[in-house]
């Protein structure tokens, strides 16, 4: 076989596991010697547990964290369920990184508006951590984050304490319905974005969440006069290879695993809306 | 380029001289022909129209083992790919398909399996003399004696095969078998032109693709997709039997304590192909899946690699259980432009 087989995983070890919500855990993963690979915020990796299988996940840690990679994983499928049953010290397979990542250089000097829903915070968190580590490169940071219920919010202490305490940063939390003890906003993420009335001047909005949330967030941003080149999203797609061969993640002529998963709305508008 | 002649009586000897390599040739499999390994001492006659399943599996097996492992062990074993292979008598359309698919498998990052297998494989084509009833290769850039993707082409001249080599691997094969061959002369080359010209005349079906790649995006919401997919069963036959379809799935399989990770042919006509784990499906019905299949072959692939990913072999039309005809589909696309 050729010297490097890009489709074969390398061994990685589970360092520890955080239970985030009833169905989301964050795994900290380390390669044989530190990080298994270098990456940029927004890129993804294939995790596998033989003989269960392999699936793609976004890397939720920032590349400025040199200790390990973090993955926030929702227990929804065969592989994610198996990843929910791993224990510290266990070996898993990892390959990557895949995808283009966020345009961190083009975003320099801008105010940033992050809009995340549920597990959709995972890829945004990598970028948020990166921006905080390069705080002087970016302007005001607003983070709108919502979930169905307070119990479904991930990285709660980090979001509410660390992020909220960063300079020139506001965190806006919302949940879908009233819950006892919840004193923050109640309502869907897109509505909350409209209510907060963000101004588009010198701002980039970055959103990730369930497809239906993304759809309505894009509409809300349009109403707030954000232009398509000011809006960035990262797409989820079923993927098998991660290297543009297996075929299924195409949006028209582009492969989400190669040319995405990060797209500006301007780019998406030029592609078939099959996401 | 060298041109040689092989008397058909020497065909069995020619095949025997390839001993040591794995030789794949069309052989009867029930009521159909299929590329299969030639048993030692055998030399299957090449009297066939085309195989039901294309020979794409020589470079892109229906199931490819990527890794082997044992339950409970962290040891993994990677299978070695080192078997030199000769594919004998594949049709020029199927060889062209391999060249077309190679563009993707070599795009950006080399696909380790396809590229390795291609390096180990010599493709020996057989020009068509009697095109099938739904063949339309000449409408999509091919022809009965197209050489694209081939290391060597054989043309049936009655008593002899004319053998032409186009690559180092083809030349090496001619050198290996030179004791059986004679130099071909102008007479035979002229004879070839006549045979091929006659075959071209026999291709009855045509498809007009002019303006199709550029026009497809504008037809995204056109009712034609509903129409052409209305009778589709979503069985995936068109894609499994398509020589340019190259999509694959990756799965882990277990048998007792033995397990393997393998990749296998997949089909964009299946709903699970694009379905997210959440249940959300970007291509939820056969309308979107058919639209993607046609756009991929006649639009996206042209965008990316400047070639239509259809070689006109006619298999999808021949074998569709509900008689969906790709030529008719493209005709309707043209009409809607």
What string gives the helices and strands of chain B in order?
EHEEEEEHHEEEHEHHHHEEHHH
Mean pLDDT of chain A, as a whole number?
Answer: 95
Please tally the helical runs of chain B, counting DSSP H or I stretches of 4 or more residues.
11
In which range does the helix fraction of chain A lie? 10-25%
Task: Explain what the structure shows.
The complex is a heterodimer of chains A (275) and B (337). Chain A has 275 residues and is α/β, with parallel strands linked by helices. Chain A has two domains: 10-98, Elongation Factor Tu (Ef-tu), domain 3, CATH 2.40.30; 111-234, Nucleotide-binding domain of ferredoxin-NADP reductase (FNR) module (Rossmann fold). Chain A contains six helices and 15 strands. In chain A, the strands form three sheets. A seven-stranded mixed beta sheet of chain A has the order 10-9-8-7-11-12-15, with helices on both faces. In chain A, strands 4-3-6-1-2-5 form a six-stranded antiparallel beta sheet. In chain A, strands 13-14 form a two-stranded antiparallel sheet. In chain A, strand 11, helix 5 and strand 12 (231-234) form a beta-alpha-beta unit. In chain A, helix 4 runs parallel beside helix 5 (211-223). Chain A is globular. Chain B is of the alpha+beta class and 337 residues long. Chain B folds into two domains: 3-61 and 78-201, no CATH class; 212-248 and 266-336. Helices cover 31% and strands 21% of the residues of chain B. Chain B has helices spanning 11-16, 92-105, 112-120, 168-176, 186-202, 212-215, 224-229, 237-240, 286-305, 315-319, 326-336, and strands at residues 2-7, 22-29, 32-37, 63-70, 76-77, 85-90, 121-126, 152-156, 160-165, 181-183, 248-255, 258-265. In chain B, strands 3-2-6-7-8-9-1-10 form an eight-stranded mixed beta sheet, with helices on both faces. Chain B is globular and about 65 Å long. Classes of the chains: A alpha/beta (275), B alpha+beta (337). The interface between A and B is large, with 40 and 55 residues.
């Amino acid at each position: 076989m050729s010297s490097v087989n890009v489709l074969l995983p390398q061994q990685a070890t589970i360092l520890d596991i955080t239970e985030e919500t009833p169905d989301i855990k964050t795994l900290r993963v380390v390669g044989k010697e530190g990080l298994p690979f270098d990456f940029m915020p927004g890129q993804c990796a294939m995790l596998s547990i033989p003989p269960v299988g392999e699936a793609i996940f976004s890397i939720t840690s920032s590349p400025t964290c040199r200790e390990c990679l973090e993955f926030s994983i929702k227990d929804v499928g065969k592989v994610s369920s198996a990843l929910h049953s791993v224990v510290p010290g266990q070996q898993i397979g990892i390959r990557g990184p895949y995808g283009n990542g966020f345009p961190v250089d083009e975003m320099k000097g801008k105010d940033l508006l992050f809009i995340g829903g549920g597990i959709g915070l995972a890829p945004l968190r990598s970028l948020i951590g990166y921006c905080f580590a390069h705080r002087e490169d970016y302007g005001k940071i607003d983070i709108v984050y919502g979930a169905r219920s307070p119990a479904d919010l991930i990285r709660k202490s980090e979001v509410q304490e660390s992020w909220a305490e960063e300079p020139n940063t506001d965190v806006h939390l919302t949940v879908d319905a009233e819950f006892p003890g919840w004193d923050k906003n109640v309502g869907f993420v897109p509505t909350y974005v409209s209510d907060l009335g963000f101004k588009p001047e010198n701002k980039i909005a970055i959103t990730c969440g369930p497809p239906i949330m993304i759809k309505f967030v894009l509409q809300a941003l349009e109403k707030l006069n954000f232009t398509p080149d000011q809006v960035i999203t990262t797409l989820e797609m079923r993927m098998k290879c991660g290297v543009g061969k297996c075929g299924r993640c195409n949006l028209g002529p582009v492969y989400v695993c190669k040319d995405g998963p990060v797209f500006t709305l301007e780019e998406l508008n030029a592609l078939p809306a099959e996401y | 380029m060298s041109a040689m002649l092989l008397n058909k009586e020497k065909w069995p000897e020619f095949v025997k001289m390839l001993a040591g390599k794995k030789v794949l040739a069309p052989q009867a499999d029930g009521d159909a022909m299929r590329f299969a390994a030639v048993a030692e001492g055998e030399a299957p006659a090449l009297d066939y129209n085309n195989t039901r399943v294309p020979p794409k599996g020589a470079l892109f097996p229906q199931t490819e083992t990527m890794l082997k492992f044992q339950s409970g062990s962290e040891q993994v074993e990677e299978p070695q790919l080192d078997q030199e292979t000769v594919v004998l008598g594949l049709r020029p359309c199927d060889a062209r398909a391999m060249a077309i698919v190679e563009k993707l498998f070599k795009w950006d990052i080399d696909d380790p399996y396809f590229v390795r297998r291609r390096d180990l494989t010599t493709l020996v084509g057989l020009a068509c003399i009697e095109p099938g009833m739904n063949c339309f290769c000449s409408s999509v850039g091919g022809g009965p004696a197209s050489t694209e993707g081939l290391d060597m082409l054989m043309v049936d001249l009655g008593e002899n095969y004319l053998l032409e080599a186009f690559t180092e691997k083809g030349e090496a094969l001619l050198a290996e078998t030179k004791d059986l061959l004679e130099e071909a002369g102008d007479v035979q080359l002229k004879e070839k032109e006549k045979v091929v010209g006659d075959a071209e005349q026999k291709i009855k079906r045509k498809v007009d693709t002019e303006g199709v790649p550029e026009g497809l995006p504008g037809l995204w919401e056109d009712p034609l997709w509903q129409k052409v997919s209305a009778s589709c069963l979503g069985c995936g036959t068109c894609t499994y039997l398509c020589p340019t379809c190259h999509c694959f799935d990756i799965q882990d399989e277990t048998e007792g304590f033995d397990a393997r990770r393998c990749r296998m042919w997949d089909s964009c006509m299946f709903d699970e192909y694009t379905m997210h784990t959440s249940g959300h499906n970007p291509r939820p019905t056969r309308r979107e899946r058919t639209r993607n299949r046609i756009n991929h072959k006649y639009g996206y692939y042209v965008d990316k690699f400047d070639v239509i990913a259809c070689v006109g072999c006619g298999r999808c039309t021949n074998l569709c259980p509900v008689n969906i005809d790709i030529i008719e589909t493209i005709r309707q696309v043209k009409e809607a432009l």
